[in-house]
Every structure is written in structure tokens, then in C-alpha cells.
Design a protein that fits this description.
This protein has eleven helices and eight strands. The chain is of the alpha/beta class and 255 residues long. It has a single domain, classed as TIM Barrel (Alpha-Beta Barrel). Strand 2, helix 2 and strand 3 form a beta-alpha-beta unit. Helix 1 runs parallel beside helix 2. Bound molecules: phosphoenolpyruvate (PEP). Phosphoenolpyruvate binds next to strand 8.
């Protein structure tokens, strides 16, 4: 097996520090020693420290949901990669569609963040995805290519395997509409091809490509059995231990 499946939970703007630590603790009890699937949880910034404490000694890893590309300075309200590293984060979600649409993040900005994350030994979970209008006008692959190529500009072949790509069709995020396994595999296969062109076959085969968008225990097995679907970025279903644990079990069964 070249790629270990990865299940990442994006808790978005949910849970206080105490609530987050309590959910993390429940996850440690159920899946903290799961060796077959890489598990990453991404609480809000304010809960990173308490969650780091709760998962200490387990195999569960810690991620943030965003960061600034500079290391420090006059950027009121922002958080940097070294600050995340100091709290034991190993991953950071970048370019999530909510950041792109609600906070006007551009491909250029996402690219700066990807480069800064890698420079600081943080693994970016780089989100790409088309809107409903783009899918309906048959622009999906063009949009994905443009987002991925621009976000990865300047990322070297040796760094590429540290990047995790998350394909998240915007129309499927938080909507209950999930891409069919065929729709998702088509885009994942396309991204793998793109990575192969950019970095060569060996590096491209090591990159994990996650699906995100209303993934739930009921639809996970089929999605996770696709050749180029290496895990999931989970929003709603990661906020409760039972559903998130079921997704991790589905990923273990699909390996
Ligand atoms: C997400 O926001 O990354 C996501 C996939 O959300 P949901 O699972 O709720 O669609």
C-alpha cells in the first residue's frame, strides 16, 4: 500500500476549548491506537491547546483550519505557522471554499500559505473544488486544474508528497448532496494525472487526495473504495464521535 488512508475532521467554528477536548478524548478512547488510518482533527484555534493535551500519546494528529503566510508581525487577528507548530499541529487546512468565498481568499494567497506551511514542516490540506454553476457549465476539470496549479506554484518535487489535496465540490459541502463515486473518482484521477505531470509518477503516487462534501458513514464505503480516493475531509460528521469513528472504520475497511 503506497498511501495510508487519511480521515481529517474539520470542526469549523464549533466547540469551546473544553467541548473540543472532550470530543478529542472520546476519539482517543475509540480510535487513538488505530494504526491503519491516519486521523487528523482540526479544531478552532482556541481549542488547539486543549485538544493537543487530549490526544497526547495517541496516534491522532492535530491540524488547524487556516493560517497567515508570514511568521509574525502586524497582522491583527491572524495566526502563523510557527505558532501552530508550537502547539504541536502537524497539518493545516488551506484554501477551504468557505475561506475562498466568505473571506475572499485568492489562489495567489493560498499559494503563499501552502509555501509557508511547507517551510515550517506543516502539511497543507489544500482544498480545491468547483461551484455548482461551474459543474453545470462543464468547467469542473478546468477549475480544478487552475486552482491546483496556482496553489502548488513553487512546491518542489521533494515537497509534493507532504501535501494533501482535498477535492471538495462546493455544491456538496454542508448541503447533504454528495458527489457520486464516479463523479469524485473522475476528478481525483484527473488530479493524480496533474500531479504526475508536475512531479512525476513516483511523487504523485504518494500524494493523498481526500474527498470532502457531505461524506457520512452511509456513503463513505463506496467513495473510499475508489482508486484515487485516499480518505476524507469531514465537516458535519466529524462533530460527533460516533459518526467520525464510523468513518475511520470505513476507511480502515477500505484499505
Ligand atoms: C468541509 O467543510 O470540509 C466539509 C466537507 O463539510 P461537510 O462534510 O459538512 O460537507
Amino acid at each position: 500500500m503506497i498511501r495510508k488512508k487519511l480521515i481529517a475532521g474539520n470542526w469549523k467554528m464549533n466547540k469551546t476549548s473544553a467541548d473540543a477536548a472532550s470530543l478529542a478524548h472520546e476519539l482517543v478512547v475509540s480510535v487513538g491506537a488505530q494504526p491503519d488510518v491516519e486521523v487528523v482533527i482540526c479544531p478552532p484555534f482556541t481549542a488547539l491547546e486543549s485538544v493537543a493535551g487530549a490526544i497526547d500519546g495517541s496516534l491522532i494528529k492535530l491540524g488547524a483550519q487556516n493560517m497567515h503566510f508570514e511568521a509574525s508581525g502586524a497582522f491583527t487577528g491572524e495566526v502563523s505557522a510557527p505558532m501552530l507548530r508550537a502547539l504541536f499541529a502537524t497539518h493545516v487546512i488551506l484554501g477551504h471554499s468557505e475561506r475562498r468565498t466568505l473571506f475572499a481568499e485568492t489562489d495567489e494567497l493560498v499559494n503563499k500559505k501552502v509555501l509557508a506551511a511547507l517551510k515550517n514542516q506543516l502539511r497543507p490540506i489544500l482544498c480545491v473544488g468547483e461551484s455548482l454553476a461551474e459543474r453545470e457549465s462543464a468547467s469542473t476539470l478546468r477549475v480544478i486544474q487552475s486552482q491546483a496549479e496556482r496553489a502548488l506554484e513553487g512546491v518542489g518535487k521533494d515537497q509534493a508528497p507532504s501535501v494533501v489535496v482535498a477535492y471538495e465540490p462546493v455544491w456538496a459541502i454542508g448541503t447533504g448532496k454528495v458527489a457520486t463515486a464516479e463523479q469524485a473518482q473522475e476528478v481525483h484521477g484527473f488530479i493524480r494525472g496533474l500531479l504526475t505531470k508536475l512531479y512525476g509518477e513516483a511523487a504523485a503516487q504518494r500524494v493523498r487526495i481526500l474527498y470532502g462534501g457531505s461524506m457520512k458513514p452511509a456513503n463513505a464505503a463506496e467513495l473510499l473504495s475508489q482508486k484515487d480516493i485516499d480518505g476524507g475531509l469531514i465537516g458535519g460528521a466529524s462533530l460527533e464521535a460516533r459518526s467520525f469513528v464510523e468513518l475511520i472504520k470505513a476507511a480502515a475497511a477500505a484499505t
